[in-house]
Design brief:
two-stranded antiparallel sheet; 1% strand; globular
């Protein structure tokens, strides 16, 4: 059993999915910081009360090392965080850039527990896994400087991709398990989404109009709840797709019905409507950063070739070319 477990994780594959995770994680980090910068909220929420903030805060070890949560220190941390996020996106600096971005994100989002959300922990987890991964091996400036090309298909350890996939499934599954009020679960009327849309804390605008489409909000509640609590089926569908050559009627039907793709599409729809209707911070982009880990390099290549054939006036990408993605 131990040998089989080692063999399962000891997979070598090109780092394309890890590079895509890195790019989106860098974008999520940049958006998290620039929102506070753009709205001029650094002094209010990330400095201590004696420096202009609205409550006493101490800051983490790094902020304390820099002199404490003053406006000057925190502004410098935010600017440095945005710059390192951009470097992470373009893939310059390898794991060091990921480490710096992770620390600067932690130093800001953990500064004031009143002003964050669970998406901060999601982003931190993703950045930590990016730090463990050779994510600048391809689709990066590091790759360009090292090889003269933007792509490098040299196989790398794939176990970090599995951890990203597990993190994604675990996040959705435990979120669904925590929705235990009568407004969420079957038999309770599925009114949770309707009531959430009426709360000013979450609204992007007045959603009184939802009273006229109340059944649709019930459908949205039921679908999102079932999609989250059944997330382990998503993991199972990934396993069945990875072992498609093995026998088994359930495996056959999962692959034939494209269960993995169904869960993926539902996830994209979920985040689209959530972001459109509600102000939930960078939750969507932080979550979507893990989606590329659902597919291997070869699957991304096939997707790129398929998209390339559908685009007008575009040549079909050759094997190993993901420019059509």
């Amino acid at each position: 059993m131990w040998s089989r477990l080692v063999a399962f994780f000891d997979v070598k594959e090109p780092a394309t999915p890890l590079a895509l995770v890195r790019i989106i994680a860098g974008l999520a980090s940049f958006l998290t910081l620039q929102t506070v910068w753009r709205h001029d909220l650094i002094r209010l929420i990330w400095t201590s009360a004696d420096n202009g903030g609205y409550r006493p805060i101490k800051g983490d070890w790094f902020v304390q090392l820099l002199g404490g949560p003053t406006e000057t220190v925190m502004t410098g941390v935010v600017i440095a965080g945005m710059l390192s996020s951009l470097l992470l996106m373009v893939g310059l600096g390898g794991r060091l850039t990921a480490l710096v971005t992770l620390q600067l994100i932690l130093s800001t989002t953990d500064a004031n527990g009143h002003t964050g959300g669970s998406y901060d922990e999601v982003l931190s987890n993703v950045l930590w896994l990016v730090l463990l991964a050779p994510s600048t091996r391809t689709l990066s400036l590091d790759c360009r400087l090292r090889t003269g090309a933007w792509q490098d298909e040299t196989p790398v350890a794939g176990w970090v991709r599995f951890l990203l996939l597990w993190q994604l499934i675990l996040m959705y599954w435990t979120t669904g398990l925590q929705k235990v009020s009568a407004h969420w679960v079957p038999g309770g009327g599925f009114s949770a989404l309707y009531y959430i849309l009426q709360q000013p804390t979450w609204q992007r605008w007045d959603h009184g109009w939802t009273a006229y489409v109340y059944p649709l909000t019930q459908l949205g509640t039921a679908t999102s709840w079932f999609w989250e609590v059944s997330a382990p089926l998503w993991l199972l569908s990934w396993w069945y797709a990875r072992t498609a050559e093995r026998p088994g009627r359930l495996r056959h039907w999962f692959n034939r019905l494209h269960v993995r793709e169904i869960y993926l599409v539902l996830g994209l729809i979920f985040h689209f409507w959530l972001t459109l209707l509600m102000d939930v911070g960078p939750f969507a982009i932080c979550s979507l950063a893990m989606y590329p880990a659902l597919y291997s390099h070869s699957e991304w290549v096939r997707a790129g070739r398929w998209i390339g054939t559908k685009l007008p006036c575009r040549a079909t990408p050759t094997v190993g070319d993901i420019s059509g993605v």
